[in-house]
Structure formats: C-alpha cells, structure tokens
Specification:
Layout: E1 10-11, E2 25-26, E3 37-49, E4 57-67, H1 69-73, H2 78-87
Antiparallel strand pairs: 1-2, 3-4
C-alpha cells in the first residue's frame, strides 16, 4: 500500500446555507482521492512572554492527525468500528 501524504487545502464557508453547510471542506482534484489522514497543527498561547520587552507570548504547537473514517471502516470489524465511534463521541454507547 502506497502512503501518499499530499495535504489538500482546507476551505471554510461562513454560511450554513452553502454547499458544505458551514463545515470545512477540501477541494479534491479529478483523479485524486480523499486523503486517508490529515495533519493539522493546533497552536495555543502559553503564559510565557517572548522576552521582557514584548507583550507577545510564546506559542505552543501540537500536531494532530485526523483519519478518514471510510479507510478505517474498511479494515475494522463492525463492533470495533462502532466502539471507536463511541470513544470519539460520534455515537451513544
């Protein structure tokens, strides 16, 4: 299996009346497939200032990975997949 980590651009609609109902979306080109994983950095401020003369704070970056549910569903049995959805808060136990 070839791992291709090409990261598509992510777009946002401000209106819930748009094509994606306000959810973020990716523009997938013809002959391309939806990626099995996306890497997204979550940046937050710390309480530390860059230096004594600056009011700017040091940023902390935590890289996260988000997985394509269809790719996961194709390799897990139904019970395990449903347990995963419960763990992620996507389904009631």
């Amino acid at each position: 299996m070839k791992n291709n980590f090409k990261q598509p651009s992510i777009f946002y609609e401000e209106s819930v009346e748009g094509l994606s109902a306000g959810f973020p979306f990716m523009q997938i080109e013809k002959n391309e497939s939806i990626p099995n994983v996306l890497f997204v950095g979550a940046i937050s401020d710390t309480d530390e200032q860059i230096d004594d003369e600056s009011s700017e704070t040091i940023k902390e970056l935590v890289m996260q990975s988000y997985y394509n549910s269809e790719a996961i569903k194709s390799v897990l049995d139904e019970k395990t997949f449903n347990s995963l959805k419960v763990a992620l808060g996507l389904r009631k136990a």
